Amino acid sequence: MTRHFFGDTAVLLGRSLRHIARSPDTIITTAIMPIAMMLMFVYVFGGAIDTGSESYVNYLLPGILLITVASGIAYTAFRLFTDMKSGIFERFQSMPTARSSVLWAHVLTSLVANSISLVVVVLVALLMGFRSAAGVPAWLAVAGILILFTLALTWLAVIPGLSAKSVDGASAFSYPLIFLPFLSSAFVPTHTMPGPVRAFAEHQPVTSIVNAIRNLFTQQPVGTDIWIALAWCVGILIVAFAFAMNTYRRRTA
Amino acid sequence: MTANKVRGPVIHVQGLEKSYKELRVLRGVDFTVAGGSIFALLGSNGAGKTTVVKILSTLLKADAGTAGVNGFDVATRPADVRESISLTGQFAAVDEILSGRENLVLVARLRHLKDPGKIADDLLKRFSLTDAGARRVSTYSGGMRRRLDIAMSLIGNPPVIFLDEPTTGLDPQARIEVWQAVKELAHHGTTVLLTTQYLDEAEHLADRIAILHQGRIIVNGTLAELKRLLPPAKVEYVEKQPTLEDVFLALVGDNGKNGHDRNVGTNA
Questions:
Q1: Domains of chain B, each with CATH number or no CATH
Q2: What is the CA radius of gyration of chain A?
Q3: Each residue of B229-251: b (16+ CB within 10 Å) or e?
């Protein structure tokens, strides 16, 4: 069956993309909350936050992009959950179709949907005065980190998507992820935080990823942050993938 | 019922066991289904009917026992089994956001068939869904969904079809439509295994009926054989009353179009 893997994945990806095209509200709702946060922090709180950089929107955008992905993958879990619940997942699994295609199509759909949301958020940031002198290689590096981050969280989303008992359960896992950036360098520099909070903030994945993206945008040397960021993303990806495949095998055994 | 029962068994099930944690759902199930026949697995809710179907369609692994479909063992040659079967699950497994036609094209593509568009159009016609073909499935009635669901199962003409409670939740007309579709399948030589909790459904459709109770097949035979298990019928003269279903169908008409208002017992 593996000889049909790419063809079957493409057919199923086409199906999911058609879902998204017919309900573009999922892209809009994914982008709206990060955009609202960006508006609030730039125009309400931003004036009182001293980040040491001249423009707060420049400082804020990397964290907002991560929040966009964290809210976007709730839909990944939701779409997978819907397929499980409706029985169409079982229909595909009982057909002479490459079995893992069903899962991979959802993963690729998640990448496409989140990429669109990220582009929307970046466009709004540009309207709000975000500027970067970064060249093409730096932008590509930012895109690469975000894709890796999306892929890691997507596999994390596959776990509740396959195992949740209700719609709420399928998407609730993303709430802590959305709030993780608040305890990081995404909104304020970590050195302003009290000891234990600062210790947590400086050693959780969001801070290193945010710092790496921020340095790429501002053309600063990325230093060790980028390696720590990549290590977190790859680590989460591997662990989430292993758990997701284990869940998948239990569902289909 | 169907005429062509000359082939050997197409489905073999022997000593099938399956437990979910402590719960022993199947405790040694044995049966065979002859090619081109309709076999009904009858049982109450939770009797294990769906579990049998899931094992036969390679969605679940049995704890013990063997099962073969179309000459292939479900445990060792699942890919060949999947080439030979189609599963219509308990709930119409259709894509709500796609149109009826897109659903059919999707399945034809996933079965790697040539000319998916033509296959879709032919099936829409055969199941009287041509007019609704371009509409999203979320606008379909329960009967239309079921018809589409069964149409999707026929794509690629698999020799064996599993129908898990195909008429649960359908209104009487939709039920009759599904029954006709199932009978037609068997006429074309397809082997049909259907599960049902409706006794009349098994009576109407099946060449053989097996009753699954507490994880075992307690009887297996033709309707006539099953009837002989009870003491012979004694002859009584009873006025034949129409059933409520007869009344309902007579009033609303078979396709629901030629019904008109009637008030019982008003005008003289």
A1: 9-231+242-252 (3.40.50.300)
A2: 19
A3: eeeeeeeeeeeeeeeeeeeebee
* Token pair of B114 as six digits: 């040539």
Q: CA–CA separation, B118 vs B114, rounded Å?
A: 9
Q: Which one of A82, A84, A91 makes the best mutation probe of the B interface by having the most chain B beta carbons within 10 Å?
A: A91
Token digits for B6?
Answer: 């000359």
Percent of chain B exceeding pLDDT 90 equals 35
**Are A88 and B59 within 8 A, CB to CB?**
no
Asked if residue B183 lies in contact with residue B206, where contact means CB atoms within 8 angstroms, the answer is no
Helices (DSSP H) in chain B: which residue ranges? Answer: 49-56, 78-84, 100-110, 116-126, 142-154, 172-187, 199-205, 223-228, 244-252
Q: Please state the domain extents for chain A.
A: 2-252
Could you give the ipTM of this predicted complex? 0.83
C-alpha dihedral over A131, A134, A138, A142, to 10 degrees? 0
Give yes or no for B89 touching A (CB within 8 A). yes
Residue B11: pLDDT band (50, 70, 90) is: very high
Distance CA A185, CA A210 (A): 7
Give how far B174 is from chain A: nearest CA, Å.
Answer: 20
CA separation for the pair B41, B51 (Å, rounded): 12
Answer whether B27's CB lies under 8 Å from B10's CB. Answer: no
Using a CB–CB cutoff of 8 Å, tell me whether A78 touches chain B. Answer: no
- Provide mean pLDDT across the span A17-31: 85
Residue with tokens 């730096």: A138
Find, among B223, B87, B73, the residue nearest to A90 by Cα: B87
Quick check: B110 and A12 CB within 8 A?
yes
- One DSSP character per residue, B19-48 reads EETTEEEEEEEEEEEETT-EEEEE--TTSS
Phi, psi of A6 (to 5 degrees): -70, -40
Whether A64 and chain B come into contact, CB under 8 Å, resolves to no
Contact (Cβ atoms closer than 8 angstroms) between residue A178 and residue A172: no
State pLDDT tens for residues A156-173: 999 999 988 888 888 888
Q: How far is B191 from chain A (nearest CA, A)?
A: 17
A97 shares contact with chain B (CB less than 8 Å) = yes
What is the helix (H) or strand (E) element at residue B117, kind and residue range? helix B116-126
Dist. CA B42–CA B39, nearest whole Å: 10
The CB-side HSE value for B96 (13 A sphere, CA atoms) comes to: 13
- Report the half-sphere exposure of A171 (CA within 13 A, side-chain side): 12
Read off the pLDDT of residues B43-57 as tens digits, 9 standing for 90 and up. 888 888 889 999 999
Residue with tokens 């013990």: B64
- Chain B, nearest residue to A2 by Cα: B79
Which chain B positions have a beta carbon within 8 Å of A23's beta carbon? 97
Query: Do A87 and B107 lie within an 8 Å CB cutoff?
Result: no
Query: Which chain A residues touch B94 with a CB distance below 8 Å?
Result: 86, 88
| Alpha-carbon span A38 to A56, nearest angstrom | 10
Determine contact, residues A63/A184, Cβ cutoff 8 Å.
yes
